[in-house]
Amino acid sequence: MNKVIIIRWGEIHLKGKNRGLFEKMLENNLKHAIKDFDCTFKKISGRYLIKDFSEFYTEDILNKISKVSGVHSASVCEIVKNDIDLIIEKAKEVCKDRSGTFKVDTKRADKTFPMLSVDISRKVGGEILGSNKNLKVDVISPDFIVNIDIRESGETFIFTDTVMMMGGMPSGSSGKGMLMISGGIDSPVAGYMMAKRGMKLDAVHFHSYPYTSEQAKEKVIELTKSVGEYTGGIKLHIVSFTEIQEEIHKNCKEEYMITLMRRFMMKIAEKIARNTGAQAIITGESLGQVASQTIESITSSNSVATMPVLRPLIAFDKIDIIKISEKIGTYETSILPYEDCCTVFLPKHPLIKPNLKKVMIEEERLNVEELILNALSNVEVIDL
Ligand code: ATP
Ligand code: MG
């Protein structure tokens, strides 16, 4: 085996007393992410190392690591023994297809190595130049750096590239949230954003079978699974919303449909959150994006919540949300054209600025508690 992956973490450095705990969480999450690969995992000062894996799986392992929150960056390195000739030979090989400018940066933890870092960098740099006419040295702002890390263990790591990873905080370090997930673009992104900040997630989805199809439900399962890759798994609670929608449709003014639905969703999501140990609700709302996301609409649904409602996308433009959904791999699924429960009984003129008092009067036409109990008595839970 002649490759190693170096993994660096980020913000944990800031966490004072809790640092040990956070590091342990990150370590466990990383081990869980790569559990299906035959490899060894080791902690060294300020880094983790993955070794002894089949090179064939390098990209797959990197892909798994890219979904572990708290990891800042990773580099795939060549390994040779601490021997200047072997180092030169490998450094030349690493640079043989490159062009542009470079410099060599050497760290010598092995103080028994018979050359100083500056001399190693100079010597290796000269040899690389001699072997590849497309390269020039630029020590101020090179196109790439040949890093040579001579370790006390007797191994030298050589690498040129650092891949930026997810960043954020280790999953589990910021409690647990209940993600309200629809089949749209926004809510999976909202889940990812909170996962990145270290929240464990459960998800809740409201569907209106038979008004909405089995395919619409499958789409949400698929999306939830994608979000779950960033939290080491996720449970999806699927709630039937049909009766509630029919009752609102039957008893309330048409334009209140969405406003009242939102309040029911929030109440039910919160009940499930409490039952499963989640401490906050997460939505994909973005201020002003649609009628149901004006500050008045948000006031109306927010007023039934008694736990924090986190809206990580509140100030994001759609175009920026789309960019993230493409990056995290949910976009293609999100744009599949299956109906959402919000499109059932859609009013011609939904309230854009609902008045909370009037909303509550309208809601009194319904047996709210009974409808909520009915919905909660029939929740399907899928472990993804
Ligand atoms: P998204 O792209 O996430 O569907 P959206 O732009 O379509 O959002 P809305 O339909 O107003 O916006 O929904 C706002 C938020 O309400 C969603 O981001 C989601 O958190 C929640 N939500 C909407 N529909 C559902 C549903 N069927 N089940 C669970 N949560 C939902
Ligand atoms: Mg939607």
Q: Percent helix among the residues?
A: 25-40%
Identify low-pLDDT runs.
Answer: none
Secondary-structure-derived class: alpha/beta
In total, how many domains does the architecture comprise?
2
Give the CA-CA distance, first to last residue: 34 Å
CATH class of the largest domain: Alpha Beta
User: What is the N-to-C order of secondary-structure elements (H for helix, E for strand)?
Assistant: EHEEHEHEHEEEEEHEHEHHEHEHHHHE
The assigned CATH architecture of the largest domain is: 3-Layer(aba) Sandwich
* Computed CA radius of gyration, to the nearest angstrom: 27 Å
Residue-averaged pLDDT, rounded? Answer: 94
**Ligands, deduplicated:** adenosine-5'-triphosphate, magnesium ion
How many extended strands? 15
Please summarize the sheet with the most strands. 9 strands, mixed
Q: What is the tally of helical segments?
A: 13
Strand content: 15-25%
In terms of quaternary structure, what is this? single chain
CATH superfamily of the largest domain: HUPs
CATH topology grouping of the largest domain: Rossmann fold
| Shape call | elongated
Brief rundown of the structure:
The chain has 384 residues and is of the alpha/beta class. It is 38% helix and 22% strand.
Care to describe what's here?
By secondary structure, the protein is of the alpha/beta class. The chain has helices at residues 19-33, 58-65, 84-95, 117-131, 186-196, 214-228, 242-251, 257-275, 295-302, 318-328, 331-334, 356-363, 368-376, and strands at 3-9, 40-44, 47-51, 71-81, 100-108, 135-137, 144-150, 155-159, 163-164, 176-180, 200-207, 235-240, 280-282, 309-310, 379-383. The protein has 2 domains: 3-164, 2-Layer Sandwich (VC0802-like); 176-383, Rossmann fold. It has 13 helices and 15 strands. Helix 8 packs across helix 9. The chain starts with a strand and ends with a strand. Bound molecules: adenosine-5'-triphosphate and magnesium ion (MG). Adenosine-5'-triphosphate (ATP) is lined by residues 180-182, 184-187, 204-206, 265, 283-285, 289-290, 292-293, 340-342. Magnesium ion binds at residues 182, 184, 340, 342.
